[in-house]
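Q: My labmate handed me this sequence with no annotations at all. I'd like to see what the chain might look like in three dimensions before we decide whether it's worth expressing. Could you predict it?
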Amino acid sequence: MQLTWRARRGWVYDLETLQVVDELDYEGEGWGLCYDGARLWLSDGSDRLAQHDRRTFDFLAELAVTLTGRPLPRLNELECAEGWIYANVYGSNDIVQIDPLTGEVAAIIDASRLLTPAQREQADVLNGIAYNPDKETFYLTGKFWPRLFEVVFE
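A: Here is what I predict for the chain of 154 residues:
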């Protein structure tokens, strides 16, 4: 599935052909999206994640994300992996590990040392997270980043 950031449109693709098989409208902004095996999770730049039905994209529920009991805003790109939701915090080099049952942040991953100071001058925000279950690694990148990084979260 692909979402627009602000146009409130989404497209569903066939995995084999990459042809559009469905189009949908939704409320809010589409900052990030991940699938946990049961439902889709959508971020909109706030401190809340919306749960959606994987087939109809109907809204199911909302999860407030907190760090030490306080709302954590600017949730951006999402990746569902290993029973957790991972989100980068827009405008920072932090990726947070979120408990999908409580919304509490269980860990903060600092990605600030991936780029050299010279590379950081040319790069923009961290905003790409993908999980490789075969290797149990994550791929990280960002806007105008010079490369893709393969990392393990410990």
